[in-house]
């Protein structure tokens, strides 16, 4: 942590996803086998944010293949310079091109026993609980993009003249502005509520998924509307809507798709009813 906070490490990377283990990370195939006092890791992680800049990787690997699904996974902290780690080139993405996304290969990477984070075979719980916190972050990112898009487009409607009027005078457009503003405000309140619960040490899994689901879907809709308000200009790279619309698209996918958020929300609600 001190090296991450001081900037000695430009970033850390969260290495969970694999080619065959995206929405279902417990089906991962990366293995960590005992090697003397330590561990030897083999496998490939996919779509890892900032891997090419990372000083340290948080890596999940199967440590007990005989255990029931999700019960034999452990979490390791691995220094970027370790022998056997290879980082692939940055992926060519639709958006968020300011953020590098790489594959990370672990080929007989040997780490000491002290690299184990948390308890042996209890790593999957660390992954899912960290994802819940991350969802507040991605929801907030989505909200920021949605607000920026609508801010730009709303100002544009007051300046753009058609049919002898600023287009903001037309009720059809006013309703679009009103609906998006209402949805983004609701998203903001859901995010604040989830963050507040997290900060107070209360359970927040359900609230984080609700906030991420709603904020990312509504931010995508906001970018669509904002581009529509600019008409053909919105489609041009010269204007910011083209980039915002590409950047926002990933927010309903990463840190868990909208469909995964619905699984989490439904499970959390049903848990209460089943316990009653
Ligand atoms: C779809 C899933 C929610 C399904 O989960 P699973 O069925 O595989 O696992 P669970 O049984 O729900 O949970 C396992 C275990 O952990 C406990 N748990 C669950 N949530 C929490 C929590 N918030 N805090 C603490 N503990 C929690 C749960 O009770 C279980 O414990 P027991 O076994 O009962 O003891 C899940 O697979 C899922 O979320 N999938 C989506 C994965 C995802 O979001 N991937 C994104 C990867 S990161 C990314 O995209 C960004 C790139 S990067 O950062 O570089």
TrEMBL record:
Gene3D superfamilies documented for this protein: Butyryl-CoA Dehydrogenase, subunit A, domain 2, Butyryl-CoA Dehydrogenase, subunit A, domain 3
Domain Acyl-CoA oxidase/dehydrogenase middle span(s) in chain numbering: 13-109
UniProt similarity note: Belongs to the acyl-CoA dehydrogenase family.
Keywords, alphabetical: FAD, Flavoprotein, Oxidoreductase
InterPro entries for the chain: Acyl-CoA_DH_CS, Acyl-CoA_Oxase/DH_mid-dom, Acyl-CoA_Oxase/DH_mid-dom_sf, AcylCo_DH-like_C, AcylCo_DH/oxidase_C, AcylCoA_DH/oxidase_NM_dom_sf
Superkingdom to which the source organism belongs: Bacteria
Pfam families (alphabetical): Acyl-CoA_dh_1, Acyl-CoA_dh_M
Official protein name in the record: Acyl-CoA dehydrogenase family protein
Cofactors, names only: FAD
Residues of the Acyl-CoA dehydrogenase/oxidase C-terminal domain: 121-270
